[in-house]
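User: Second chain of the day. Same drill as before.
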Amino acid sequence: GYSLVHRIQFGLMLLVCSQVWLAYNPIDLFWGWIGAVVVMSLAETILFPTMNVHIDRLAPKHLRGAYFGAASFYDLGFAFAPLGGGIILDHLGGYWLFIIGALLSLVVIYLYSILEKLPRPDFAALKLD
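Assistant: Same format as last time:
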């Protein structure tokens, strides 16, 4: 019975929890790592399909393909994440890698909280020649 945005924010909070857990987990606490990864997997299980449904509902019918095309740019993250993560690991260490991940997730939670307040163009009134 929760809105899509609230479900996404809940999934993001689980992701924040897993990132902070990973940041503070002792290196030799095996079950701590397993627990954090389980929480992260649960967050991803909630987030990925819910975000796709949200994009589908957000997009005007005649621009749905463009919205999903623009949303697919997240695939670039899969390509650049190892490079960015490696640079952070090399310069700052594992603790900061997970803290930065948690902070970025908090930024996304904030962006979802202001999403409904942002103005949207009236696509019906626009003439597309």
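The chain is about 75% helix and 0% strand.

User: Great, on to the next one.
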